[in-house]
## 1
Amino acid sequence: MIQAALEASTRAASVALAVEGQVEGVHLDGSAAHASDLVPALERLCGARGVDPADLQLLAIGIGPGSFTGLRVAISTALGLSRATGAQLVGVSSHAAAAWRVLEAEEAGVRITVLQDARGGCVQTSSWQRSADAVQCIAEHALVPCAEAAQQLAGSARLLADEAGLRAARLASDDPRVVASPAPDAEAVLTLGARQLEAEGPTPPEALRPLYLRPFVPGLRPR
């Protein structure tokens, strides 16, 4: 089975390919444009493994929360690839993918809260628990005012956060609860997407949308 994944919720976008269970990923240059890099990166991975992109059977996509532009580009790219190849689509929370990178080495029942700077005076949070073979959401994605974040996170025993998230939440940079920084990648999206497909089936194309925790407001560039 040929499976692929796209994750572009952060500046460090990534692409992954699995051929008969063997996964390989590539992390793109954070200074480059997602729109021009995702498909070429996938084509290079396919070429290196000797497979045709047209034979894709599953395409998992990180749906956020995260970068407005990156998510729109990744989902648009996935929809186009699905129409061209017939690949089934699965949308995966980017927070779930970040949590999986920590929880995959833990026993079932271990929990972690993802904390991410959302800018505009807010942070984004969600909480996850290690299940038998993936992660389970135990506190839905939420947009929390920075002034309230420390109080709301007081009950979290473990945090997945980077310096920007901690600063926005007004937490100490050496908070002992922090275990890693939130870095979702396409390999984790692919792992969770394949398991989600088996458990729940594919995501209908019309339901594949970016997970925005506040309305998307396009900006205008000065001329």
Note: Residues 2-94+184-207 form a domain with the Nucleotidyltransferase; domain 5 fold (CATH 3.30.420.40).
## 2
Amino acid sequence: MQVQWTPHSIEDLHAIYDHIAQDSTANALQMIDRLTSREDQIITFP
């Protein structure tokens, strides 16, 4: 199985990044990395 990021989910990631980046771009990048690196966990526990 493979996680497919929909256009809507990508827009959500951009919105999350934009919101957090208002205070810290480093924290925003870290959060997006944490969310996108969990594909294996998403597959196991949808």
Note: Residues 7-21 form the longest helix (15 residues).
## 3
Amino acid sequence: MDKQSPILITGALGFIGKNLTAHLTNQGYTNLLLFDIAYSENPEQELATFAKEAKFVFHLAGINRPQSNEAFYSGNRDSTTELLELLSKFGNKAPVLLSSSTQATLDNDYGKSKAQAEQAVYSHSSTNGSPVYVFRLPGVFGKWCRPNYNSVVATFCHNIASGLPIEVRDPAYSLPLVYIDDVVRCFTDAMEGKVAQDRSTQPVCLVNPVYQTTLGKLAELISSFRQSRTTLAVPNMADEFEKKLYSTYLSYIPSTHFSYNLKMNCDNRGSFTEFLRTPDRGQVSINISKPGVVKGNHWHHTKNEKFLVVKGEAIIRFRQIGTSMVTEYRVSDKILQVVDIPTGYTHNIENVGKEDLITVMWANEPFDPENPDTFFEMV
């Protein structure tokens, strides 16, 4: 698709629409026809103009929380039919992508209205010759989703981030979820003709990956994200679902609560403050030493560390246990240099500058007071 081609997005100000619009804009598409009935002064005329011009159509508009069951059909089936009739009227054979729902297979008004919208799209393809892509989406999660509306992820993230209670009626209830960036990726792939389809019945397009979780696990994970400001634990970034869920959670933190304090362990030498800790990637701390102060003079059996001076000047000294030779490294903020702290070497760090020394320290394991693996011995 040419970057200057007009692309119609209905429901452009909704959750998926906002993310898709932002992505296409970032990719350099310059002619986005953004339609949202709630914010259009003349929706019928605007939609007709867009339907005449569009070279590709993302039909994301729909309704899922109406005041009456009849509104399901007007908001999902009828709005789709109206758009397709306009395309046919203008002889526009632009491809049409429909955002549908896995509930289209269920016998409820929402599901039936979505299924009827799907059938309208398939019929349009047959009569108008337009390529069509019908995506049946499970629950979608990610930034900008409206809480306390139709997404349990958005509701849990919003409430937990704001210190509000959540309700978990059935912790074992299983639910499939897809991440908004994956949805947008699959949508834009379809625009380029690259799409995975399930042809067991009709050519339903697939978003991948789909994550399977439970309400209980969802609540537990999101609660742990809030607690991580106290525990300093980092979510498991090797788990794609947990990584994406954490990114989603952060987007719901109130803007007045982005920052949080750390516990500084202070004395007349300076301070030592733990920043992050993980069970498998160790812990990161910030060490501040006043001029002339020497810290350390200990060694480890298995624990190992990395020191990085980011402000000031220091000498880091090493002596292998049982030997007399001392090795020195002079480091400063003029050249950022990582110094490994091997096992079996007693070591210290001295502030030899005229200002506070700030050192970022990484240890391969979180400190365990029951097994500190730290033994005093002067260098």
Note: The chain has two domains: 7-227, 264-376.
## 4
Amino acid sequence: MIAPQFPDNEIERQRAVEKYGLLDTLPEESFDNITKLISYICDTPISLITLLDKDRNFLKSHHGVPFNESPREISFCGHAINCEDEIMIVEDSRKDERFHDNPLVADYGAIFYAGVPLVDRDGYKLGTLCVYDHKPRKLTKNQIGAMLTLSKQVMSLYEQKYKNNELKRFQTRLEERNNNLRKFASIVSHDLKSPLANIISLTELLEEENKDNLNEESLQYLEYLKSSSLSLRDYIDGLLKFYKSDNALNNKKEDVDLIHFFEQIRELSGIGIDVEYQYPKDETVIFVNKAALQQVFLNLVTNAVKYNSKDHVLVKISFEEDQKHYKFSILDNGDGISEDDKSKIFELFTTLGKQDRNGNQGSGIGLATVKKIVSYLDGAITVDSTINKGSEFCFTVCKN
């Protein structure tokens, strides 16, 4: 017996084998189907999909034998990956000096062998797709063609498994980064809010106690300081809401009475009696994630009132449904959004430089939160708007 030599690029080849994460994994139907098929095509009792590890031949799929690995030093596949041909065929191992006294021949009757190296995109031979028989024989041209074709299918499965593993690793890293970012935002926001509250309080105290001693310019400076602090506070609150909105992104659904729901939105958003607030009065119950839908409506309804400089403020809600979606719209008669700005408003931290009816500028977080939630609900959101006439935000929520 002649033990197979390690290839010259063995270190790099071994890294390539390990990259796929298939060593010591359980049997899988997709691989077992291939070994069953090639065994049938080649009319052989044994077929294997192998990976040559450091000191063993790991059988990712084994049809016709009870074990899932064997020593590399006695493996036929160790010779096959050193072969320059597309397929290595041993018609009678008893007459081949490499195998005639091999334990696989004596103990398992491995007389005939044909193995196709499994070659990755970088040219490394990871293992083989191979067949064994207990008697000397030959393969037909079609059988050889089938082995070559199915070996490529095996490599496609290897590549697919590798990509899936990479996606899982990426998803895990992404979740960790998002969790860290949420913690960071929460901690930083909390640490900023406390001194910021002190600045606002001290500014108001200074203004109150010294209003008779300060000139108009100094009082204006204090007003600027207070206004800037309040804007920063709103920005921090918005940032916290954006990351906390993930708490609403769960699969918990419940029956929601729309009339009661729209009344709750009015109360929670603090809309005064001076706002004309219209909504459907039909008795309708829908099955949705109420917490997520509530966040969407609170943002859109609040914006409809805040960015409206007219004396008469109108907010009109509409609802309809089809087989797949619930469809909502929030129409207002506010200041409107320009055509150029429509594509920007849903981007995080994007502001249009406009002040609301209270003289405050937005943080660019609210509508980004809305889009994130609507997307999670397998819906879509659009806006139609005309400057000085108003806007209509339309969004859908998937029923399933």
Note: The chain has two domains: 10-169, 249-400.
